[in-house]
Amino acid sequence: MSSKARTQSCSSCGDRLLVPYHARTIRCTRCRSLSSVHSFFPSLVFPKVLMNNNSYNSYSSSQRYNYDRITTQQSSIRGMEGDWPDSFPKVTGKKRALLIGISYSSKRYELKGTVNDVNCMKYFLVNHFKFPDDSFLILTEEEKDPHRIPTRRNILKAMQWLISGVSSGNSLFFHFSGHGSQRPCLGGDENDGFDETLCPLDYETEGMIVDDDINNILVRPLPTGVRLHAIVDSCHSGTVLDLPYLCKLSRTGSFQWEDQSNSSNTYKGTSGGLAISFSGCGDHQTSADTAALSNDVTTGAMTFCFIQAVISEPGLTYGRILSAMRTAIRDAGMGAPFSGPIAALFKKVFKCGIDQEPQLASSEKFDIHRMPFIL
Description:
- GO terms for molecular function: cysteine-type endopeptidase activity.
- With 375 residues, this protein is α/β, with parallel strands linked by helices.
- The chain has helices at residues 61-78, 114-129, 152-163, 203-206, 211-219, 301-312, 318-333, 341-351, and strands at 5-9, 16-20, 25-27, 34-36, 95-101, 136-140, 171-177, 180-184, 194-198, 209-210, 227-233, 245-249, 255-259, 274-279, 289-291, 298-300, 359-362.
- A hairpin with a 5-residue loop joins strand 12 (245-249) and strand 13.
């Protein structure tokens, strides 16, 4: 066991919990109850700063601790720029992609289809959008290189690699298949009061990756003429890039962009580039990991639907892709007939009672029925 963590029992169910270094409280992954951490670590002294124009000292000790941790994590992210491991690709072309699949092997929350998602996505990008073989950085538990294991630090480093040195004409692609979650937002920049998160392989000890961090790394630095497409197949992923606009699409095809900035005045856009994300579900929904394809190959429902939608009708608009994914899931839930692999997917998804509706978000508003999907 790491010297930076120890265990204690959950105060409700008694399950053993791995407690990160300096944690004040910890939430049980089984019963979701919150337990106070026994005082066995010396306290840290953090700088007193302002939160949302309110005095730092006016917040509870748990709020101050959470904010301190966020601030510390953001500082560590800024210090990770450049100096890439030798195993990271040295991309010279216009296209590059970061693909992450996390199985959480041997955990009770293990996923079966995430590595398949990554393999399918790479094949899709190479064969349908001509991404060069040397333009991919792939992080999974099957990688032999320690820098390509999807730990929190490695994922953040890989995100920095994805946007490093980009210029007008670059096309960037980010794909994540794994667990996602939420946590209360202390910054006041979320309409629903929750930050969305991605769960690295070591999130129990090192923490989750918060949407604010993803926005800081992947979205805000994008310069004019650079496009980023993100495909996020995880639970609670609707606004996981913290993009300014979320598309609200009706069944009749009418749409409007919902402003996500509320009253916080926190800028969530780019530096002139364009960032667009397709995500597996809304912020308060879950995504399916299911045996869907022939020969019982397990894959993420959203990843499979996205690839199928684009391949079936080349030259699709963003609106058509989103509508096709949603309609397929909705019709399957109502018992509409399907044939082939898509039928197997939806029968198994809805047999498990999965409720998900893919989402589209963007750094700027556009006509989703006119703008073609181009990588």
